[in-house]
Fold each of these.
Amino acid sequence: MKNIVKKYGDGFPAVNDISIDVADGEFVILVGPSGCGKSTLLRMIVGLEDITSGDMMIGDRRVNDLAPRERNLAMVFQNYALYPHLTVYENIAFPLRLAKADDATVDEKVRAASKTLELDEHLDRKPANLSGGQRQRVAMGRAIVRDADAFLFDEPLSNLDAKLRGQMRSEISRLQKKLGITTVYVTHDQTEAMTLGDRVAVLKRGILQQLATPRELYSNPGNLFVAGFIGSPPMNFLPATVEGTSVELPFGSVEIPADKAEKAAGRGLLIAGIRPEAFEDASVVEESKRASGSTFKATVEVVEWLGSEAFGYIPFEAPPEVQEQLQQLERDLDGETLRTQLVISLDAASKVSEGDEAEIWVDTATMHLFDPSTGENLTIDRENAGRVLTLQEEAAAQPA
Amino acid sequence: MKQRVGLVVGVGLILVWCLLPVVWIVSLSLKDAVAVTNGSPGFFPADGAFAGFDNYRDAWGNDQFRRAIINSLGISLISTTLSVILATLAAYAIARLEFRGKKLVLTTALAIAMFPVVALVSPLFDMWRAVGLYDTWPGLIIPYMSFTLPLAIWTLAAFFREIPWELEQAAQVDGATSWQAFRKVIVPLAAPGVFTAAILTFFFAWNDFVFGITLTSTEAARPIPASLSFFVGADPFNRPASLLAAGAVIATIPIVIIVLIFQRKIVAGLTSGAVKG
């Protein structure tokens, strides 16, 4: 669908040397914190933003210099951009009218779209009288009436409340599967990214960090940034030193598989990334599973019990160089620098309560080790990580 | 309750204050000319002084007067239309495009609006006579446009800035050319602004007296306010006050109609619902 894309803002590289090849019918998500260039990239695809260099290909056509209307793409804007002076019917019919379709065709297509989106009873109303979700559906209706080559979504759900967002998310997913149309979807919400996308492109400051399936992103993040961005609650980052097959963490040593240890050997101080769900209260872990991980003792400071699971918080001290890297990471992720603490997911049956010293089991097979200075994931499984930004690429992308 | 009484009294006072002269003109226009000359101070015509619609019939029967009405209507409508079209295009450019000298255009426009009309009248008089525009419709349309354009541009630019840019982009993605996006999306949304500008322009052109009396000499182009001042009737030493009053009332009717028509179009909050606020 789309070939090599390389872009530039006005001096400032808003989008830098990004190449994404979107297959026909694929659902690709562009995700990243605000200001990472994801919306700019989308607007370049649709033609609302100029492309400084590189080629934007749709099919076999180079569309760099084509006006938006010549690209045959449909876009849903973040704020819907409905035409307030037109009824819902006319809003949906607008692209058809511009294409000079005859009335019968217009009517047929609009009815079909409104049926798909359950807008039938609202067709005569004006956008001002619709709820947020309805407006959202009208905006989508306007996109689907045309036989566009691709859909582009620019944070379409960010204006909806949480409950509606969930509904619309599944709605979009269903619609995309049904129509089988190529889709590029921009969001800053990693839940949307994980649930909707066939493949997810993680961007940071205009640079593509990793392009992979949600599962690959989750289990094999290419660097600290991706690791910290994907997952909620986020991955824990701990200072670690590897000696043989044991890793020295602030709470004690744990054993890791030999192949991982080998990749990280002799590197000195590293950052260990462990997902909260890799931890468990040792007392509720089955004996058979227990052997595959290690246990350590720590005092759980706070416990949040959510019914289906519980989160425990364990504060720890980090050495300055790790601290600094983690603070930088937080800034990249739009977060605030909190104190260094370990978030662990506990079984709901766990009896650990606040202030207890508990024995914690950790599944070390899923642990990743990162280079603290470059953020690179040392223990990545390259086969299953999609496309990852390499250090050389990153260096090349940096403006001189 | 007390507040209500206060409100009613206040509104009543303001209404009387504003409308009394208007009502008085209407009363005057219904009186017999002779009675007015002899002194007829009452609001209602005295016995036998009621002229019915005779004055209106006389005023309307006057050739000069009818010519003046046609002149005024023609000149005002043409200058309003042209001014609004030009202002819409200019304001759109100012609101949407970045170009050198944008500030200059805006300030110059404002400066023109600040110029006292009287100061420009004599040079225009000379110029128009030299180029042959004196006593013609274009001779009035041009100054009317140049004086109303700045205001219209400023009003419309403010309206255009309010319209979310996404709408236009959405239209372009939907397959519209820039011109189609402008005509089908932006202009309908700016309609309240367009009609506001139109009303203001029409007011200015219709009510203007200084240009009207200076730049015309015959009924070829003389507009109604100027014409009324030349309306002397049969006896030059005896100004037909009631006839003039009738003329004034007739001259007011078009403007009332136009305002009523345009006002319907000024629906506030038309853009609501376009984007999530």
Amino acid sequence: MTYGVLAVSKPGCHIFSGCGFPAPGAEIFQFDAIFTFSIGSLEFNVSKVTVLLFLAVVVILGFFGYAFRKPKLVPRGAQSVGEIGYIFIRDGIVKETIGKGGEKFIPFLFTFFFMVWLLNFWGIVPGAQLPVTSIFAIPVAFAVIVYLLWVPLGIYTQGPIGFFKNIMFPPGVPKAMYVLLTPIELVSNLIVRPFTHAVRLFANMFAGHLLIATFSVATFYLLSFTVVGLIGTAASFTMTILLTAFEAFIQGLQAYIFTLLAAVYIGSALHAEH
Amino acid sequence: MNVLTSLLAAGGESGEEMPSVLAVPLDEFIIGLIAFLIVFGGLAKFALPKIKETLDERANLIEGGLERAGAAEAEAAALLDEYRAQLAGAREEASAIRTQAQADRSAIIEEARNEARGAAAAVTAAAEASMSAERAQAISSLTKQVGELAITLADKIVGEALSDDTRVQATVNSFIADLEGQAAR
């Protein structure tokens, strides 16, 4: 079975050819392995996802490595651009959200923001056209990293009892309410939180990519020299362009939200809420 | 196949054919972790410390510059105060010197005046003394000469040498005393 190939790419599937609308589905997120290798019993599939993932690694390390190779007091060129990124993370996310003691988490959050952003960005790069974060395993991996940072960090800074007390017994609530609130808080903070952290990013990128794919498919599917066909194609094409622009915005926004939430979690681990 | 059915197919019988989009294959998960760790390691170890250092240095420079400017300003203000104080001191000193000079001047003038007065008095006294001495001398020499003249005249008239006679001499003296008494009248 060949994944990642749209049904519509088979020639001849048009609106009046008796072919139903080949709505793109989950198969556009499935990719054949280019090659596989095994470490122990685990088989690694190197696919488009893997390639784009490591391309992002190279681009990020390459750009920031180049931009910050010999930083000058008076920045120019790439350094200026890189600095904007650094200052955005430092002032816009870390100082705002974590505050005191947040300085040492800048590299962590910096990495997240630019990794997620670039992986999202592949979705509208011609040739790549896959937001890698729409592959669920990737946001899950990232959310797990964040989870594995803030939970031990909270236990370390607040002590095991203080940490769980702060999570289970939020202050400023009538005592009787804890019967209801404690299980909810426990589940919401320790179980739902990492899940929503991953799903929020994944679902946004997944849905956005699917929308663009659907309208792209529709553009070709409707393309015929009939009134319906021309209007439909033009409308679909316009939608594709608009959605691509919209996605460009969403990609940055989701990267920001993912990083901001990571900072919020770290902040909640560092500073008890009361 | 649309999204819904493929989502519903998660872990279902058709899962073999088409894995659920919510499936998390372990290899992709691990690769995701590794990719993050590589970027994090590279950035945290090499790129970001440098830029942090630079930004801190820049902030320090700006803060240091402001501090230095503040210090320079304070120093300038202190210097200005010092100069003002010095100037005020100098003015006071000058006025004191002027007052002193005025006092000195009056003293000097007074002294000179006194000195001149003294000198003048001395000169006057000396002149007076010498004048009275000369007068006395003149009187005595005139007395003598007039006496001799009178004797000579009487000698000629009487024809006798009376020059060494003490009685004649006494007569001459009383005559001259009468003359002086007439002159004084």
